[in-house]
Amino acid sequence: MLIASLLKKELKRQQETLDLIPSENIVSPAVLKAVGSPFINKYAEGYPGRRYYPGNAIADEMESYVQNLVRRVFKLDDSYAVNVQPHSGSPANLAVYLALLEPGEPLMGLELASGGHLTHGHKVSATGKLFSSVKYFVNPETGLLEYEAIADAAARHKPKLIVSGATAYPRTIDFKKFHDIAKGIGAYAMADISHIAGLVAAGAHPSPFPFSDIVTFTTHKTLRGPRGAVIVAKSELMEKINKAIFPGLQGGPHLHSIAGIGAALEEALKPSFAAYAGQIVKNARALADELIRLGYVLVTGGTDTHLLLMDLRAKSISGKQAQDALEEAGIIANRNTVPGDTKPFDPSGVRMGTPSLTSRHMRESHMRLIAGYIHDVLVKRRPASTVGRDVRALCKKFPLPY
Ligand SMILES: Cc1ncc(COP(=O)(O)O)c(C=O)c1O
């Protein structure tokens, strides 16, 4: 019974708070239903048509259909193949490296404090322990990727694979430039578009196709699906990658999650999804512009995407203090390193994004209101209880769809 009451409490918490964590979102009732469906009961080790368990005719049809939806949403040509089984983004990335690199071989990714992800070769991640990891950085002054410097680093270190993509980079990524850098040294070009998959699907961020040998993405961020991940790779690489997922890293696929990914992709094919993704970006810009107007420093001076990164070094407050003060008022945003930070546990920034707010149908005017609440908490020191009252009133007007 405790779980039932905790489910209710968590729904109430989500209803009554503003979720600005850019890697989170609010799934549709159709996605929620698919994830809570009887597919959860089924084992299906293997791939469609090649299962190690009986009773999988419908699972085969479903998984093949979801693979095909990925092809349609991302407009893939026949040179690419799709795997929808990774349980999440981290095993997806590890599987690609295990498939294409020998242990100890070099891979290159964006440094953590520059906005890279742990699975891009950070030393505490299996990806940094099993492989020799080399880094590229954003410019510490501008916060921007500098492609000439990345090309120099690639020429110096000769990685076998270069990962583009980030977890806290607010600007457009030029996948063609990454492709050219990788091909210039004979490396694989991999794009991890976990954060921006929904934007790419909707044309609100340039696509990494056809400029990548491998593309990975989580399905639960801007794509608005359940927790899970997808790997798309050039067909000739996929046999190795399939084997690295199963039996290499995983056992039975989570068919219920795959069904949920399918439900999200069906939604992503609708014209309304393009408007939704466009609104995510407009909302992020409105939030960024208003925060700048209120005197905040944003890394790179703004955003092209769904997220922004506040640099609090000029304010007398740390990222953690800001995160905690905002949470007290019902505003959920996570502390984050900013370029040049050296202590990941005590970073100087806060990362904010608009996918969840946009899923609740909020628009630019609401972003300006929310920027004002943030300012009330961080600078004006208005009591959390009174800001919290305003936050709850706003939340009530934009309920979750269940
Ligand atoms: C760019 C990127 N790649 C991979 C991941 C890992 O995904 P997961 O948390 O599902 O393992 C994340 C998660 O935030 C991410 O931002």
List keywords for this structure.
Aspartate Aminotransferase, domain 2, 4-stranded antiparallel sheet, single chain, 15 helices, about 15% strand, about 45% helix, Aspartate Aminotransferase, domain 1, about 400 residues, alpha/beta, binds pyridoxal-5'-phosphate
Describe what this molecule looks like in 3D.
The chain has helices at residues 2-16, 29-35, 57-73, 89-100, 126-130, 147-157, 175-184, 197-201, 235-249, 255-268, 271-293, 319-328, 355-359, 364-378, 384-397; strands at 18-19, 46-47, 50-51, 80-83, 106-110, 132-136, 161-164, 188-192, 214-218, 229-234, 297-298, 307-311, 331-332, 334-336, 349-353. The model has no long low-confidence stretch (mean pLDDT 97). Helix 4 crosses helix 9, helix 6 runs parallel beside helix 7 and helix 11 (271-293) packs parallel to helix 14. The chain is an alpha/beta fold. The radius of gyration is 21 Å and the shape is globular. 44% of the residues lie in helices and 14% in strands. The strands form four sheets. The chain has a seven-stranded mixed beta sheet, sandwiched between helices. Strands 11-12-15-14 form a four-stranded antiparallel beta sheet. The chain has a two-stranded parallel ribbon with strand order 1-13. The chain contains 15 helices and 15 strands. It has two domains: 29-268, Type I PLP-dependent aspartate aminotransferase-like (Major domain) (Aspartate Aminotransferase, domain 2, 3-Layer(aba) Sandwich), CATH 3.40.640.10; 272-397, Aspartate Aminotransferase, domain 1 (Alpha-Beta Complex), CATH 3.90.1150.10. Bound molecules: pyridoxal-5'-phosphate. The site of pyridoxal-5'-phosphate has 14 residues, from helix 4.
